[in-house]
Amino acid sequence: MNKSAKDMGSNNRGQYIRNMTYAAMAGQSGCGSSILVIGSLIFGIWLDANLGTEPAFTLLLTILSVPASLALMVYMVLSSVRRISPPDVDAIKARQAKKEKEQSHWSVEE
Asked: Could you give the CA distance from residue 86 to residue 72 in angstroms, rounded to a whole number?
């Protein structure tokens, strides 16, 4: 964990981990999109080979998969980003002030 995660309390650390998980899920939306396009291409080729309609299903499914993959990507990103909650700024400032006060207390005694 980085320094900011260590400075957080246990409740904020859990929220930090959840937020990073949601950010990772949003980042994987591109993978889901490419899997959808490649899957439709393969399925279109398979349908054309079995039905004897050479480029029809391949083109149709590939063309239809592009807007579907964009919609999937937007849905995955928005649903993940909505779950991310901002950190409790007041609690972080209070901990920083307490830490600074403790550090200044030790520096005065030296």
From this structure: 25
Locate 70 and state its tokens.
Answer: 């964009």
- Give the Å distances, CA to CA, from 85 to 17, 36, 56, 96: 11, 30, 46, 21
Residue 106 is which amino acid?
Answer: W
Distance CA 52, CA 23 (A): 44
Domain ranges of the chain: 55-84
Local confidence pLDDT in tens for the 110 residues of the chain = 455 545 555 667 787 888 888 888 877 888 888 899 999 999 999 999 999 998 999 999 999 999 999 998 888 888 888 877 777 777 778 888 888 887 776 655 55
Type of residue at 97: A
In terms of Cα–Cα distance, which of 74, 75, 78, 82 is closest to 18? 82
